[in-house]
Amino acid sequence: MSFLIARLMASATTPPMTLSVAKAHLLAGICLHVLLSTAFWIHIQVWWLQSC
């Protein structure tokens, strides 16, 4: 979480061109995090159903 804040702080002091790149990186990071957490929960649910 602190990494995202640091990224936002850094992007606030950079020119517009690198700002859009930083936003794209931030968006990609959020998407990756959502995908990984979704996959993790599906894996847990499948494992839990199999163990019952």
Which helices and strands appear, and what pairs or packs with what?
Elements: H1 2-12, H2 16-51
Helix pairs in contact: 1-2
Transmembrane segments: 26-49
Keywords: Membrane, Transmembrane, Transmembrane helix
What does this structure look like?
- The mean pLDDT is 82.
- The chain is rod-shaped.
- It has one domain.
- It has helices spanning 2-12, 16-51.
- With 52 residues, it is mostly helical.
Write a brief structural summary:
By secondary structure, the protein is mainly α. It is rod-shaped.
Beta fraction of the residues? Answer: under 5%
- H and E string: HH
Give the CA-CA distance, first to last residue: 35 Å
Total number of beta strands: 0
Q: What is the count of structural domains?
A: 1
Tell me the major beta sheet.
none
Mean pLDDT: 82
Q: How would the global form be characterised?
A: rod-shaped
Q: Kindly name the structural category.
A: mainly alpha
Q: What Rg, in angstroms, do the CA atoms define?
A: 17 Å
**Number of continuous helical runs:** 2
Unreliable stretches, pLDDT < 50, 5 or more residues? Answer: none
Helix content range of the residues, please? over 70%
Keywords: Membrane, Transmembrane, Transmembrane helix
Transmembrane segments: 26-49
